[in-house]
C-alpha cells in the first residue's frame, strides 16, 4: 500500500528530480525542448526547492511504495484567498500534483487527491483550488471526478510560450 509522507528540506533533491521527470513526461510532447529547459531550470532547481520546502504555508508530500517515490504534491495555504478569484475567502491550493509515468492509472492519483483534500479540510479550509493547462484533457477529467469546476483562467509562461491555465475550485464540505 502506498504511503504519503510530508517532505523536509532533506527531500529537496528528490523533489527536484521528481518534478523534472514528471513534468517532462507530462508536457514534453506538447512543448519545445527549449521552452521545457527554460522552465525546468527556473522552477525545479534544488536550491529553489530547498527554499520552498518547509516554508510557512507550504507543504510538500511524497507518495512512496516501499522506498520508491511514485509522485509528489505541493499544497499551499492561502488564508486571504485567491487574489483574483474569491479574494478574502480562505483557501488552499494544489500547486503541484504529479505521479511518475509508471504509476499513472494504478490508483495513485485518487489516493493523493483524497489525501490533499483531507489535509485541506484538517486545516479548516472550506475550498481548494488549482491551475491546470487547458490542453491537459486527462488532468481535467481527473479533477472533475473530485468535483472541481472552472471559475476562470490565467496566463502561464512556459519558457517563452504563453499558455492558458484554467482555475478550478472545489468546495471541501461538498466533496466526498
Automatic annotation (TrEMBL):
Keyword list, A-Z: Acyltransferase, Transferase
Single annotated GO MF: acyltransferase activity, transferring groups other than amino-acyl groups
Superkingdom in the source lineage: Bacteria
Annotated ranges, domain N-acetyltransferase: 2-173
Gene3D superfamilies hit by this protein: 3.40.630.30
SUPFAM superfamilies from the UniProt entry: Acyl-CoA N-acyltransferases (Nat) (SSF55729)
Pfam family of the protein (one): Acetyltransf_1
Repeat as UniProt keyword: no
PANTHER family the UniProt entry points to: AMINOALKYLPHOSPHONATE N-ACETYLTRANSFERASE-RELATED-RELATED (PTHR43877)
Name recorded for this polypeptide: N-acetyltransferase domain-containing protein
Organism listed in the record: Flavihumibacter petaseus NBRC 106054
